[in-house]
Amino acid sequence: MNDQYSDPFPAPIVTREEFGAALRWLRRRHAANHGHPELSLREIAARIRGCVHNTVRNYLAGSTLPSTLALQRLLIVFEATDEQRSLLVQAHHDLAGSRTVTVSALTGPPGYIDTGALLHLRNDVSRR
After folding, report:
1. Range of 82's domain?
2. Which of 18, 70, 76, 128 suits a disulfide with 66, CB 3.0-4.6 Å?
C-alpha cells in the first residue's frame, strides 16, 4: 500500500466539502491498493445500487450527503478500514444533524422584512 494512504484521512471532516474530499480520498486509495484506475462514477453507482452516476458525483463533491445506506455501501466498495468507517459515520451523523439554509427574505411582525438571512437549523432535539 502507498504510504500516502496509511492515515485514515489527510484532514478532519467538519464540512460537507471535506466529507466529499474524504470519499474521493477513499476512491483514490482503493485504486492505488488494487493497481487500477479509479472506479468511474457509473461503476460506483452500479455497485452501491439505488442511485445514478450524477448522484455519486454529488456525494464525491460534497454537495449532497449520501443516505446512511448509500454511505455504508460506499464504504464497502472503497474498502474503508474500521477507523475510516467510524470517522465517516460520525461525520455523516454530525453533518446530517445540522444544515444551513439561505433565505432571501424573512417576514416577522407587520412591516418587518429582513433580507439575506442565514439560518442554522438543527435536527438535534436535545438542545431544547
Report:
1. 3-97
2. 70
